[in-house]
């Protein structure tokens, strides 16, 4: 008889997005005239730049000819893309990362999910709360978290991100082994400056911990002194793995390309281990997609990508400004497409969701869906159109002004 992985039974059912969809559908049935605006979208909406589609067409055409056809590629990614990543994302920022420290993949979701496999089951993990759920769920599956008791996994160290600590995670009092950090953060949209991030690197060096640093939203950073890479911090190469993605940077959520940096000088021989893991379990990102990713680094590619990001960032500014005018507290949104607002009058996240849906026909994401410390908060995103964003804010103002 087969024994299944019982850790899967410890997973909490994620009702978040299905409950939202159900509530919206029911409301729309009751009020067919209502023009609902969705501000909960966590996906890009603008079409991909034409330099990228041109690169895709060209690469597809190469596949059609004997001389240029390609089969399996290197599991770690083609040199033409790794070279561009090394130069453009690291060397130009004064960071010395080598090509064999870069592993191209088909998404930061799978990389952030899979990396924990390299560590034994009895490591203590630390996550921020609220959090991108992939980090916690994959550790549950691996049997590293213990049981779910009173809203939390018993063996996990939760680091709250709240108004009180300005959404800056505090160093754990206990010793932790694997630390997940995501900045600019999903869902709060807040960032860590270099001094704050340095505390984590120092902690990891002192405690022989490893930091798994998710920088999927790095392209949205505009303020000075906010690190674009954890390797801007001295010593980080000994203790940090970095995940980056073309998804939000270049609109690749449907094309799929990302990369993970595992420095050779990192502790525990993780570079070799990840290489071994990828060579065994992953057969490379498609040639066509890697050519598409390469095109994002051309002069024209950079220009087009920046234009899209600027569009989302303008939406984020509109949201922040308009919420402020309505006397609502809001955070994030400056170096991020996410705005994390405080529900007014001590409302709970889901009550505020219902109120906004019914009174403004605006949909967002209840903060409590990202972790217990998200209760009383609400996430709005900048991925809708400018017109819809303006209209949604007008409606919210009418309720709260
Ligand atoms: N990391 C964070 C924090 C995210 O919010 C997301 C997607 O929403 C991802 C990673 C997934 O990235 P990818 O599309 O490269 O799998």
Distance separating the two termini: 63 Å
State the low-pLDDT regions, or none. Answer: none
Total domain modules:
2
| CATH homologous superfamily caption of the largest domain | Type I PLP-dependent aspartate aminotransferase-like (Major domain)
CATH classification class of the largest domain: Alpha Beta
Count the helices. How many? 13
Q: What is the CATH-assigned architecture of the largest domain?
A: 3-Layer(aba) Sandwich
Q: What are the secondary-structure elements, in order, as H or E?
A: HEHHEHEHEEEEHEHEHEHHHEEHEEEH
CATH topology annotation of the largest domain: Aspartate Aminotransferase, domain 2
- As a whole number of angstroms, the C-alpha radius of gyration is 22 Å
- Beta-strand level of the residues, as a percent range? 5-15%
With strands numbered from the N-terminus, the spatial order across the biggest sheet is 2-10-9-8-7-3-6
Q: What characterizes the major β-sheet?
A: 7 strands, mixed
What value does the average pLDDT take?
97
State the secondary-structure class. Answer: alpha/beta
* Beta strand count: 15
> What overall geometry do the principal axes of the alpha carbons give?
globular
Bound molecules: pyridoxal-5'-phosphate
Report the helical percentage: 25-40%
Main features:
13 helices, alpha/beta, Aspartate Aminotransferase, domain 1, 4-stranded antiparallel sheet, 401 residues, binds pyridoxal-5'-phosphate, single chain, 7-stranded mixed sheet, Aspartate Aminotransferase, domain 2
Question: What would you say this structure looks like, in words?
Answer:
It contains 13 helices and 15 strands. The chain is α/β, with parallel strands linked by helices. Strand 4 (148-149) and strand 5 form a beta hairpin. The structure holds pyridoxal-5'-phosphate. Pyridoxal-5'-phosphate (PLP) binds next to helix 4.
């Amino acid at each position: 008889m087969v024994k299944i992985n019982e850790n899967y039974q410890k997973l909490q059912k994620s009702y978040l997005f299905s409950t939202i969809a159900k509530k919206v559908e029911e409301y729309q049935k009751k009020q067919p005239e209502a023009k609902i605006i969705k501000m909960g979208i966590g996906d890009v909406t603008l079409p991909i730049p034409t330099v990228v589609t041109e690169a895709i067409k060209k690469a597809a055409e190469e596949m059609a000819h004997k001389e240029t056809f390609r089969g399996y590629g290197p599991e770690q990614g083609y040199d033409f893309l790794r070279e561009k990543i090394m130069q453009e994302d690291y060397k130009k920022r004064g960071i010395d990362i080598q090509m064999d420290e870069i592993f191209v993949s088909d998404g930061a979701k799978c990389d952030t999910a899979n990396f924990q496999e390299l560590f034994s089951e009895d490591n203590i993990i630390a996550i921020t709360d609220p959090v991108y759920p992939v980090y916690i769920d994959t550790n549950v599956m691996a049997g590293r978290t213990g049981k779910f008791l009173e809203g939390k996994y018993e063996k996990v160290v939760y680091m709250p991100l709240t108004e009180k600590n300005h959404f800056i995670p505090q160093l754990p009092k206990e010793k932790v082994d694997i630390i997940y950090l995501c900045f600019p953060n999903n869902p709060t949209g807040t960032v860590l400056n270099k001094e704050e991030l340095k505390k984590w690197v120092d902690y990891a060096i002192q405690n022989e911990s490893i930091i798994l640093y998710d920088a999927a939203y790095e392209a949205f950073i505009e303020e000075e002194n906010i690190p674009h890479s954890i390797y801007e911090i001295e010593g980080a190469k000994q203790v940090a793995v970095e995940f980056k993605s073309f998804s939000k940077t270049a609109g690749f959520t449907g094309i799929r390309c990302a990369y993970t940096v595992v420095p050779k000088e990192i502790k525990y021989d993780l570079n070799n281990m990840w290489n071994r893991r990828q060579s065994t379990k992953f057969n490379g990102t498609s040639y066509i997609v890697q050519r598409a990713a390469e095109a994002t680094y051309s002069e024209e590619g950079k220009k087009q990508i920046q234009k899209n990001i600027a569009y989302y960032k303008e939406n984020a500014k509109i949201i922040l400004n308009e919420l402020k005018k309505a006397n609502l507290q809001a955070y994030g949104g400056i170096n991020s497409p996410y705005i994390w607002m405080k529900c007014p009058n001590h409302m709970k996240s889901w009550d505020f969701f219902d109120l906004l849906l019914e009174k403004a026909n605006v949909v967002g994401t209840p903060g409590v869906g990202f972790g217990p410390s998200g209760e009383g908060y609400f996430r709005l995103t900048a991925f809708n159109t400018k017109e819809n964003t303006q209209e949604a804010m007008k409606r919210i103002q009418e309720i709260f002004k």
